[in-house]
Amino acid sequence: MDKKILFVSETVLFPMDRGNRKRNVNLIETLKKEGCTVDFLYLDTYPEEDTSETEKYIGENHFFRIMNRKRTFPVFLKRKVRKALELLHCQFAFKFFSLDERTSPELENDMKAFFAEHDYAQVWVSCVYNSKVLLAVPGGTLKVLDTVNVSSVKRQEYEAVGYYNYEFALKPDIEREGLKRADAVIAIQNEEEKFFADLIGDGSRVYTIGENMPVHEPYVSDSKKVLFIGSTYVINVDGVMNFIKMVLPKLKEVCPEAEVLFGGSICKMIPDSDEYKKLGWVDSLDEVYKDARVVINPVRHGAGLNIKMVEALSFAKPVVSAVKGMRGLSWKEQVCIATDDPEEFACAVRDIIRDDELAMKLSQTAVSFMKEYEEKNTEALKELLSL
Known about the structure:
Blueprint: E1 4-9, H1 19-33, E2 37-44, H2 52-58, E3 63-67, H3 73-87, H4 107-115, E4 122-126, E5 142-146, H5 154-159, H6 172-179, E6 184-187, H7 190-200, E7 206-208, E8 225-229, H8 234-254, E9 259-263, E10 277-280, H9 285-291, E11 294-297, H10 307-314, E12 319-321, E13 337-338, H11 342-354, H12 356-385
Parallel strand pairs: 1-2, 1-4, 2-3, 4-5, 5-6, 6-7, 8-9, 8-11, 9-10, 11-12, 12-13
Helix pairs in contact: 8-11
C-alpha cells in the first residue's frame, strides 16, 4: 500500500527511554511494513532534545522541523501561576490545560506554509495537545490523531500517587474539541476506543491500534532473575518503590534465590540496596530479557496502554503484574499473573522461578496472545490506510 504519510510529534524518537517514544517508533515501523513512505515532522519544543539519532533513523530527506517554543503572554503567565500553585499543593485555578497552550501561536501558519510545499495522503499527529496541526491540513488529506491515552483522566492518575507538579490534563469537553479536529482517531486499547467513540458521538471513526513488536518464540530461562525495566516516569517510580517496600521482603522470605534486577533510567530514582541490582541504561534489551526468568510490572496507576507489558510479552516472558498494569490487554486466557496483594505477588514470582512447566505455559500464552494482538492491530491499520 504505497501512501505518503506525515507523522508529527513534539518528542524525538531516540533514545527510546519513554513509552511515547516507543509508541511513535512502533507506529512508524508498522506503517513502513505496510509499504508507506513516512516523513517525520518534529515540533521543536524542548531545547535540550538531541535530534541526531531521530534524523539518522528517519533519513535526512524525510526529517523536518518546525519551532514550537513561542507562547502568548497570557499562556506564559498561566503556566507560571499553575506551576507555583501545584508546588504549594493549593491549586484553586488553572488545574486543567486549555487545548492549544502547548503549541506556538504561530504553529498553524507555519504548518500551512509547510503543506504548501509538501503533499501527503495522510497526516498523523501524536497527542491531542498537538491537534492544532490538523487545522492546517489541506482538503483531501486524511487527518489522523493518535491519542496515546485519555487526557481527561490523566491528572487523577498522577494525583493518585501524590504527584502534583505540572502534569497536564484536559476536561472531557476540551478533549472532545481536539478529537473532532481529526477525520480518524486512534485509541491505544479497546476500552479507550469505546470512551473516545462515546465522547465524539455520531460519525466518529475510532480505531484501536496497540503496540506491534517482534514476537519471540516461547522459551524459559534457567536463571533466577526477576526483571523490571522502566523510565523515571513518576507512576513507574511509585510502582517500583511500592514493590521494594511491600513485595520484596516477602519475596526474599519465600524465594531467597530470586535475583531482582532493575533497568532503565528508573535506576536514578531508587536507592542502592544489597537486595537488588541496578543495571542502569540497558543497551541490549534482547540480552537482558532473554536472561530473565520472570518480568514484573508493579505499576499501580496510569492511563492508556502499559507498553512495558507488551514489550515483555513480545519477548515471550512470564509476567507477574499489578492489576492496573494489565489495562487494555484482556484476552480469552490468562496472559500473565495479575494481583495487587503483596504476598500473592511474591508467591507468583516464586512459583515461576521454581516451576518450569508453569513458566513455559505462561511463555506460550504470551506468544499466542501477542500474535493475535499483532494481527488485530494490523487489520485496524490497513482499514485506516484504506480511507
